[in-house]
């Protein structure tokens, strides 16, 4: 298995090949293809962004921790 720079280049090219039809349209520009690697979501709206930020859901581990601590606010 290749290590270091070779594996990073391989994964980067693999994601570029998968992302040619990203964001609901065909991407042609090299800059756009590079952007889907670094920023896979085009914006941070409630549909694209982190759901915990908008819906205030807590993870299972957070709920378990709150039960152990005995926090009364939840």
Would you give an account of this structure?
The protein is mainly alpha-helical and 74 residues long. The chain has 2 domains: 1-40, no CATH class; 42-74, no CATH class. It has 4 helices and no strands. It has helices spanning 5-18, 30-38, 51-55, 60-69. The longest helix has 14 residues, at 5-18. The model has no long low-confidence stretch (mean pLDDT 78).
Which shape, going by the Cα principal axes? elongated
Q: From the structure provided, what is the oligomeric state, counting identical versus distinct chains?
A: single chain
Write down the Rg: 19 Å
Overall pLDDT: 78
Whole-number total of structural domains: 2
- Strand percentage: under 5%
Key attributes of the depicted protein:
single chain; 74 residues; mainly alpha; 2 domains; 4 helices; 51% helix; elongated
Layout of strands and helices, then pairs:
Blueprint: H1 5-18, H2 30-38, H3 51-55, H4 60-69
Short description:
The protein has 74 residues and is mostly helical.
């Amino acid at each position: 298995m290749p290590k270091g720079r070779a594996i990073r280049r391989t994964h980067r090219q693999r994601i570029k090949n998968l992302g040619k039809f990203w964001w609901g349209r065909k991407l042609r520009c090299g800059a756009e293809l590079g952007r889907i690697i670094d920023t896979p979501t085009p914006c941070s709206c409630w549909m694209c962004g982190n759901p915990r930020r908008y819906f205030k859901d807590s993870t299972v581990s957070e709920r378990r921790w709150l039960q152990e601590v005995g926090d009364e606010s939840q």
